[in-house]
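Session log. Operator J.P. requested a structure for one protein chain; no other inputs attached. Running the standard single-chain path with token output.
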Amino acid sequence: MRKNDSGRKKVIKRLAEKSFRRKLRSKYKKKLKNKQLLGVKKQQRKEKNIKQNLQQQFIDYKHIKAPVIFSLTQNTEASLAFIGKIEECFEKKKKVFVNLEKVEIIAHGAIVTLLSIMIKFKANKIRFNGNFPKNKKAEANLRKSGFFKYLYENDFEEQDEYYFENEICTHAKKKVDSLLSDEIIKKVSKFIWKEERRCTGLQRVFIELMQNTNNHASNTAKGEHHWWATTYYSKEDNKVCFAFIDYGVGILKSLESNKEGHKFFGVIPKIKQLFNPSTNAEILKLLLNGDVHKTATGQYYRGKGLPGVFDACKSNKISNLVIISNNAIADCTNNKYESLNNKLNGTFVYWELNANNVNIK
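Structure written below.
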């Protein structure tokens, strides 16, 4: 009995010593933490705790930082690099946490791009999460877009169409919808001219882009991909900004189709023989000018597809047209065509409508 009592006392003593050392370590860590936070405001302490909790909660997620200026037109390369990292995770079915904390400017086109990516993750049951920008204006723009409506929705099911309407109006469908474009034209014309006007250029742009997505976004089947469009009303400049994106193969990639019967089957060798383009930026310029369509069909393009959209810009029916596809960007208003180091797996189009654009009463 005495031996057992002695053994029990040793165990109790050892446990007490362990507990004492643990308390000492805890006290030391707390003291060190308080020293680090000395002079730090209460709100900053709270934010630091939230940040640490987030890191622990999403420890098995791939954390991807967004650029300070998240805009496909103002900061193209950095924004495409950010999107590319997210796309890479999608291909590998990796969970993603988008870190938007440092974002100071977030363009509406970038928001709809991020929204369309998130829907892809959700539809394929791949976890996707993120945080808010610290910048209040950037945070407000993100909230108004409807982004968070789906971010925190667990029981997600893919839909044929999506619709959000706040200060930013976002639509997404898989089909050509002329009634939707009619509705948008009524609203934007009332906003700019205080009465309903006909905007034939705007109607053409929407129909051609929807049609383009429906027919060419996939090399396997028609109507396979969503197109996304967002409309933002700028009261300060009395203009409306539009962004349209499809996450298909991209315009330039669709030209490389080796499928017989495809509209652009075998067109790239012909284009290279006739025009000798050295970059995809030059091919994009030929496409917008109608040279690619003419080479592929033997006929002038007749205002169809992207040349029709470009025509609307040239004839002042829309303004500030920018097109990004694969690894090329066209700033149509300024006649600038450039190759990119980063690429977009799809097509992004930005344009504006203002009081000086052609309209009919």
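Operator note: The CA atoms of residues 184 and 231 lie 8 Å apart.
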